[in-house]
Amino acid sequence: MATAAQPAQQDATIGDNVPHRAMITMSAIGATLLQSLDQTIANVALPYMQGSFSASYDEITWVLTSYITAAAIMTAPVGWLAGRFGRKPLYIACILGFTIASMLCGAAQSLAQIVIFRLLQGMFSAALVPLSQTTLLDIYPPAKRGFAMAIWGMGVMIGPIMGPTLGGYLTDNYNWRWVFYINLPFGLLAAAGLSFFLPNVRGTAGSRFDWLGFAVLSTGIGALQLMLDRGQDLDWFSSREIVIEAVLAGLGFYLFAVHLFSARRPLLRPTLFRDINFLSGLILMFAVGTLLVSSLALMTPWLQVMSDYPVATAGLIMAPRGLGNFAAISFSGRMVNRTDPRYLVAGGLVLLCVSFYIMTGWTPDVSQRTVITTVIIQGAGLGLVFMPLQMVAFATLDPSLRTEGASLFSLLRNIGAAIGVSVTSTILTRNTQALHEVIGASVTPFNRALAAVRAFDPFTAKGAAILDHAVNRQAEIIAYMDDYVLLICTTFPAILLLLIMRRPPPHIDVEAEPVE
After folding, report:
1. 508 exposed, middle or buried (CB, 10 Å; 0-12, 13-18, 19+)?
2. Range 474-487 average pLDDT
3. How far apart are CA 86 and CA 91, in angstroms?
4. Could you say which of 10, 13, 159, 336 would form a disulfide bridge with 146 (CB–CB 3.0 to 4.6 Å)?
5. What is d(CA 93, CA 355) in angstroms, rounded to the nearest whole number?
């Protein structure tokens, strides 16, 4: 009897001599771009959604975290679904479902509706990245996989980078709803391209699904996200709900780990975790995931609220991040077979830490040149990390495990992204409140510095309001600094994981030729 994971072996290799490889590649990149773009395209539109739905800042972030959490939960069964129904039917169904869910998000009339539709959108998006990655690995020979992963990495990385720019343009010139409607033409084109050109591999009707493993994993992920989203509002562990959610999260992950190594037919084959490169790569991908979306979620309100940039201008200022990313991906694609990819990953992580360190010194009047230089460095860091990390992690993994491995990589990246957004937004809110009290303690009638500024007269309603705004602004500046320090503390220790990873076996280097 086949295990739940064994059907993935059928899809291990479609073949090296694949007709219409260029069209398959473009369609796969389009599907990847759809998924990665929608993680961040709504960022710059959040203040407008917040006004439309009369929601608080914590509530409106559910638009981001609901999508990421649903994608994380539904990533685990991608390997089984591809084996059961075939990669091509699953691929096309997910693209079409994602497109329909996008239309529903654009038509949402309440916060509850858009959160539900974003959950649906995230569920369909879960398979897009791992299926795209596996498809490109299978249709390219080993010597060209560095190039294939480079262009695939562009789709994954450019999405979060293009998101704020495109979202800002659409929101400013049309309406926030167009950040979802824009998915319609691209979704239809990607589905049509895969329908016509991707070879069909039949699924295995006799395969079984590990419902117990999926249930406990979903419970753990869902409870963890609810705890992170609602903890700030409910004062964390002083709330019975948060305690229950924390217990469910811990219990769900514990039971999944026990089940994984004890069940006869687990959701994921334990062999995956015996590969040291892949296991280290998973942890690294989780760390990268925590900062991939959260760094943008922090930067967008900083530019719009703290620095008073219009939404379209804020998007354009962040666009150069894509230039750094493109340059780094192109460079790493050429160098990955000529040098040890671990050096490229280490260099990328260092660049990320440098960019976050610069951002700890930002003030609301920071120059555009400084912001643009910083985001270019940050984009270059992400570009150097992402593709070489994929090459190192999958270099020693058995081809029959690729679909499961790619699914698990996406799972850890999505969980990291969800945790990163929730934790940074919670710390920002909590530290702002705490620092407001600390700074406000020095605001007294006996403070000579305040007495010298007439506008800060606390004995008039106008002066008290101006003074409170100034105190809150200073508190927010320091709270943002604390968040960027946290991102540094998450990124820098990850470099140590590279010491236990083995260098992948070299292949004959092939320049980045046009796709055949």
Report:
1. exposed
2. 90
3. 9
4. 336
5. 39
